[in-house]
């Protein structure tokens, strides 16, 4: 077992207090690990680039307290936003609009109007997006999202580059996109390329930068523009099981830097932008759940008060999350179980066929690596209210989102 939060979840007294104060299910985040993660990325970038910008991916976890914690550690932190709501959340967390990049897809006019009025960096997913934006206004700066024709991700569903992806401008149209923008009065330019999520291969990112550079070279020669920033997106993975190796960010950004600076050495050097989400917040979060029922059927089922409505990734991607018994990590395994919630779907499994210690109703369970795409993907199916969120700072427990109530769910319904 190599997880950085193991010592935290060994602390049964602490999590008993979490349960007593806030109930379950509850998302609990480690402030120490948040700071450790974003600082490691910042340090690796600083060692390899003179000009760079970290744009935290808001969709990974949009809680303003999380954003504010990251911003307090990295004062120049920016935000990667994919909706007006995420631009708003970034603002609540203290990130200025001019430090936000908005990358929508199939955006409505309302989306584009909001981004334009907020004066964020607009990164367009398609040439048609520019035609829609043009009716609203022409910003000083534009970037386009490049689809290089390939991608990589932990699951097929999270590969966002390639011929089967709905995202980005295909590379055979990317020159036309910049030509159109320049002809319509855009003065400054960036480029962005995000090809997939959860990548743990450190050699992939330098290869991706090579492809971005090839396209930049072609654009600069054809359109006669220069770039203020080059964003290679995010996609930096984290280990979800004990057999996976964490990314070495020093190695990743050394490789990226070599390619980047070999091309720009005799030219104006743009800022490198990255958009990390999972690598910043993923392993900081634990989903605390309580055992509600145990069933001996054709299989052994352990029922929890958290299910697919609380943590969607296992049902959506068949994603693996480590599961531990709070305070008893070394207990011997006694049976093979499926962990399920209370939702009326047979896909409602948080873990399948796991060896696990003896367990009984009322025990507390930790589902690991739930900091990214945990609460942000949660929903209210079967009219189950959303979980609470807390931030753990040593022994201090801070409620950063109150538990939703059934009444909250219907608060927008006017019944006459």
List keywords for this structure.
416 residues; alpha/beta; Lyase, Ornithine Decarboxylase, Chain A, domain 1; TIM Barrel; nine-stranded mixed β-sheet; eight-stranded parallel β-barrel; globular
SSE diagram, text form:
Layout: H1 6-9, H2 12-22, E1 26-30, H3 31-46, E2 52-57, H4 64-73, E3 78-81, H5 84-92, E4 100-103, H6 109-118, E5 121-124, H7 127-136, E6 141-147, E7 169-170, H8 174-183, E8 188-192, H9 204-223, E9 229-231, H10 249-264, E10 271-274, H11 278-281, E11 285-296, E12 300-304, H12 313-317, E13 323-325, E14 335-340, E15 349-356, E16 364-367, E17 388-393, E18 396-401, H13 406-409
Parallel strand pairs: 1-17, 2-3, 2-10, 3-4, 4-5, 5-6, 6-7, 6-8, 8-9, 9-10, 12-14
Antiparallel strand pairs: 1-11, 11-12, 11-16, 13-16, 14-15, 17-18
Q: Would you mind describing this structure in some detail?
A:
By secondary structure, the protein is an alpha/beta fold. It folds into 2 domains: 150 residues, Lyase, Ornithine Decarboxylase, Chain A, domain 1 (Beta Barrel); 251 residues, Alpha-Beta Barrel (TIM Barrel), CATH 3.20.20. 31% of the residues lie in helices and 23% in strands. Strands 1, 11, 12, 13, 14, 15, 16, 17 and 18 form a 9-stranded mixed beta sheet that branches. The chain has an 8-stranded parallel β-barrel with strand order 2-3-4-5-6-8-9-10, surrounded by 5 helices. Strand 9, helix 10 and strand 10 form a beta-alpha-beta unit. The longest helix has 20 residues. The model has no long low-confidence stretch (mean pLDDT 95).
């Amino acid at each position: 077992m190599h997880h950085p939060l193991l010592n935290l979840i060994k602390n049964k007294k602490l999590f008993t207090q979490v349960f007593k104060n806030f109930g379950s299910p509850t998302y609990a985040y480690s402030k120490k690990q948040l700071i450790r993660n974003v600082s490691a990325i910042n340090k690796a970038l600083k060692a390899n680039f003179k000009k760079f910008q970290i744009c935290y991916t808001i969709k990974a976890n949009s809680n303003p307290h999380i954003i504010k914690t990251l911003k307090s550690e990295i004062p120049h932190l920016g935000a990667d936003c994919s909706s007006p709501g995420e631009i708003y959340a970034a603002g609540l967390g203290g990130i200025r609009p001019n430090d936000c990049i908005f990358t929508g897809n199939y955006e409505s006019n309302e989306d584009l109007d909001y981004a334009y009025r907020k004066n964020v960096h607009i990164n367009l997913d398609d040439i048609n997006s520019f035609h829609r934006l043009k009716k609203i206004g022409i910003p000083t700066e534009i970037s386009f999202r490049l689809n290089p024709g390939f991608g990589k991700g932990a699951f097929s569903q999270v590969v966002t580059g390639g011929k089967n992806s709905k995202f980005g401008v295909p590379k055979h149209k990317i020159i036309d996109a910049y030509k159109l923008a320049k002809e319509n009065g855009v003065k400054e330019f960036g480029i962005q390329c995000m090809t997939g999520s959860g990548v743990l291969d450190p050699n992939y990112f330098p290869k991706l930068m090579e492809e971005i550079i090839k396209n930049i070279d072609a654009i600069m020669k054809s359109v006669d523009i220069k770039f203020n920033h080059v964003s290679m997106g995010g996609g930096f993975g984290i280990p979800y099981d004990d057999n996976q190796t964490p990314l070495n960010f020093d190695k990743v950004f050394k490789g990226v830097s070599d390619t980047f600076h070999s091309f720009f050495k005799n030219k104006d050097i743009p800022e490198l932008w990255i958009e990390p989400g999972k690598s910043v917040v993923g392993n900081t979060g634990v989903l605390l759940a309580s055992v509600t029922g145990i069933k001996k059927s054709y299989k052994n089922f352990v029922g929890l008060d958290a299910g697919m409505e609380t943590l969607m990734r296992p049902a959506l991607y068949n994603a693996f999350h480590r599961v531990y018994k709070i305070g008893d990590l070394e207990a011997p395994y006694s049976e093979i179980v499926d962990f399920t919630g209370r939702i009326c779907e047979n896909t409602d499994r948080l873990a399948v066929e796991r060896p696990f210690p003896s367990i009984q109703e009322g025990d507390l369970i930790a589902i690991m690596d739930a900091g990214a795409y945990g609460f942000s993907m949660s929903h209210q199916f079967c009219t189950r209210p959303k979980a609470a969120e807390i931030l753990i700072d040593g022994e201090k427990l801070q409620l950063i989102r109150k538990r939703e109530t059934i009444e909250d769910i219907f608060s927008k319904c006017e019944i006459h």
